[in-house]
Amino acid sequence: MEASLLRQCPLLLPQNRAKTVYEGFISVQGRDFHLRIELPEDLQMKNARLLCSWQLKTILNGYHQIVQQRMQHSPDLMSFLMELKMVLETGSDSTGISMKEVALKKKQELCPPPPPPQFYSSLVEEIGILGWDKLVFVDTCLSTIKLKAEDASGRKHLLTLKLKAKYPAESPDCFVDFPVPFSVSWTPQSSLISIYGQFLAALESLKAFWDVMDEIDEKTWVLEPEKPTRSATARRIALGNNASIHIEVDPKHPTMLPESCFLGADHVVKPLGIKLSRNIHLWDPENSLLQNLKDVLEIDFPARTNLEKSDFSMDCGICYSYQLDGAIPDQVCDNPQCAQPFHQICLYEWLRGLLTSRQSFNIIFGECPYCSKPITLKMSGRKS
């Protein structure tokens, strides 16, 4: 009996003196699969690691729950190997839990109970009327559908729909990359065609906004965001001399004067602020936002290719990196001969460590790490 058991057991040999690593093969239906088991120092199976060949991983794919359960409850390595062999050969373990049952449960979690047949027939009919060329993706449950469209300027957009079991009695959830909420008008008589029509109408209403943002992205050096989405309404634009302007554009009135603030050394940004106040009457909503900014600031926005490295230093003078936790350098030394940029957090930590620095409310006064001239940091929401 014992000899028979040994013949059935997988052939694994210890790989070290402590017998914490075993390696070998397990035979299933005439095929041998490589196997490696790493045990902790206490040799307890519940904390063991199972490593195997990609072929065996493929067989066990989706059934890790049974294997992990058996590993947790097996008293020793030999017992676990016998359980594993039983699972592989019979599709269930000694407790009677079937691998098919686990797979079915997993599938039910991914796909809810199927709706009635008319759900599928009406859905296929709706897609046919809409045009199969507009369909980008549909999952196996027909519960997630992605449709594409182009606006009048040729920009590509995506509409993702999550259909509910009671569709069309219930409105599907809609996901779009818009700067404003996409509210769908829906009745039980509505369909994909009506949602798609509302999607196209929304694209048309946002055309002017995207035209404005595209012109900024194409004709200026946008520092942030690095890869703007269609929903992004803010831009930080380089002005040169380590100065920049941050604007927040209203999607409903994209050519109106945006909320804006200047970032950089005082001797650079103060004159720009004065020009903005003096020339505000020149703002013409009939012109593009970029053209209006040029007129009121009396500048030409430099393109990235035209800016010399000396005109706009990219890296922080303390950590020597550009991006730090998603932030880019936005503090600049006021000394015209220095004008070194810093991340706010870097400059804050630097000044806080100097004995000569002093703080008044949320403002820290200290010395520039580069030129030792006075530098001021106003902390935006940062605790001391």
UniProtKB/TrEMBL annotation:
Taxonomic source organism: Panthera pardus (Leopard)
Pfam families documented for this protein: FANCL_C, FANCL_d1, FANCL_d2, FANCL_d3
Keyword DNA damage: yes
Stated name of the protein: E3 ubiquitin-protein ligase FANCL
Enzyme Commission code(s) on record: 2.3.2.27
Pathway per the UniProt entry: Protein modification; protein ubiquitination
Enzyme class: transferase
Gene that encodes the chain: FANCL
Chain ranges of the Fanconi anemia complex subunit FancL WD-repeat containing domain: 3-89
Primary site of residence: cytoplasm
Coiled-coil region list: none
Domain annotation FANCL UBC-like: ranges: 117-206, 209-303
